[in-house]
Design goal:
The chain is 69% helix and 0% strand. By secondary structure, it is mostly helical. Helix 1 (2-11) crosses helix 3 (29-38) and helix 2 crosses helix 4.
Length: 129
């Protein structure tokens, strides 16, 4: 979503109080999570350490695709990331932890560990509908 990139660029220019206002005002948590993912590492560190509460971070990380959540949590210190993972749904946390074992830009680090299973006698059209 283009808005997320634009908002992320603006957030990077704000002081911590203004960042808090922006994240509090964003009712769309999916958009807020995407903004979190798109801000630079220094801004994300400020958000984690000085702006957002752990509950807010958990909610935002839960909105991210697992590969992006793994990248974001890798930037945190291990104790903090484990605390966030412990508050996520068990299956989500497990998949994120599995992805955290890989380098961010490796095939393992960017994969989505989901499998689509369909009956072998279905046509492509039937599968898509």
């Amino acid at each position: 979503m283009q808005w997320a990139s634009d908002i992320a660029e603006a957030v990077e220019l704000l002081d911590n109080e203004q960042k808090r206002v922006v994240f509090t005002a964003m009712e769309d948590k999916e958009l807020a999570a995407e903004v979190l993912e798109k801000v630079d590492e220094a801004t994300r560190a400020e958000l984690f350490d000085e702006v957002l509460e752990n509950k807010e971070i958990v909610d935002l990380v839960a909105e991210l695709p697992h590969d992006e959540a793994a990248d974001v949590l890798e930037e945190m210190d291990e104790e903090e990331s484990q605390e966030i993972l412990a508050k996520l749904d068990y299956e989500d946390a497990k998949q994120i932890q599995d992805l955290m074992k890989y380098e961010e830009d490796s095939a393992g680090g960017i994969m989505q560990p989901m499998i689509l299973a369909v009956e072998q006698d279905l046509s492509v059209q039937q599968t898509l509908t």
